[in-house]
Amino acid sequence: MAIRVLLVDDQPLLRTGFRMILEAEGDLAVVGEAGDGLQAIDQVRALQPDVVLMDIRMPRMDGVEATRQITGPGRDGPAKVLVLTTFDLDEYVVEALRAGASGFLLKDAPAHELVQAIRVVAAGEAMLAPSITRRLLDKYADHLPSGEEPVPDALHTLTEREVEVLKLVARGLSNAEIAADLFVSETTVKTHVGHVLTKLSLRDRVQAAVYAYESGLVRPGAQ
């Protein structure tokens, strides 16, 4: 079945451009559009999309609050949110990830990257581009823990290997890249990631990456 996509952006021309790109793909179907966060919430309820392509700055309700209401804590609906951003709006991206977004993509990304990102998010994975993630977190290093704070108790529930996996997830590595780094199979990596998410009560790998930085387990710029 086709992946159902809802386009949310306050600029009609951008929505038209995205629609043209996505409808050229046989496995993607644009089921609706919205020009602000309030409309997005209504459309999600009415249309039940698989993926919401979400702008950040919009009138009436921004993309952060809309994301929180669509996919935030306690929300078990099928919709995944893929945030569209520019580097000028990085601070909002961090808030969107905390609110439950499954990833983010630059507005000027090539068409094939947009299509692939939607497929990745729809499959339940996270869209974490390592270069963007690193630059994003480096920019906000001053607002993150110094590493001298006490380690959260929840981290002590992880095994040594699970901690290794969490650090690599925070660096933006895919399952295949983590498997190669640790000399294990991708299936083993998926198992470890699943254990990490369950033990730390996290929704997906995006939130796992944010958690790793916020807890001080990983520092911006560290390898």
Automatic annotation (TrEMBL):
Pfam families: GerE (PF00196), Response_reg (PF00072)
Modified residues (4-aspartylphosphate): D55
PROSITE patterns registered for this protein in UniProt: HTH_LUXR_1, HTH_LUXR_2, RESPONSE_REGULATORY
Domain Response regulatory: 4-122
SUPFAM superfamilies: C-terminal effector domain of the bipartite response regulators (SSF46894), CheY-like (SSF52172)
Source domain of life: Bacteria
Keyword Transcription included in the entry's annotation: yes
Domain HTH luxR-type: 151-216
Keywords assigned by UniProt, alphabetized: DNA-binding, Phosphoprotein, Transcription, Transcription regulation
PANTHER family xref list: TRANSCRIPTIONAL REGULATORY PROTEIN NARL-RELATED, TWO-COMPONENT RESPONSE REGULATOR
Protein name (record): Response regulator transcription factor
Species lineage: Bacteria, Bacillati, Actinomycetota, Actinomycetes, Kitasatosporales
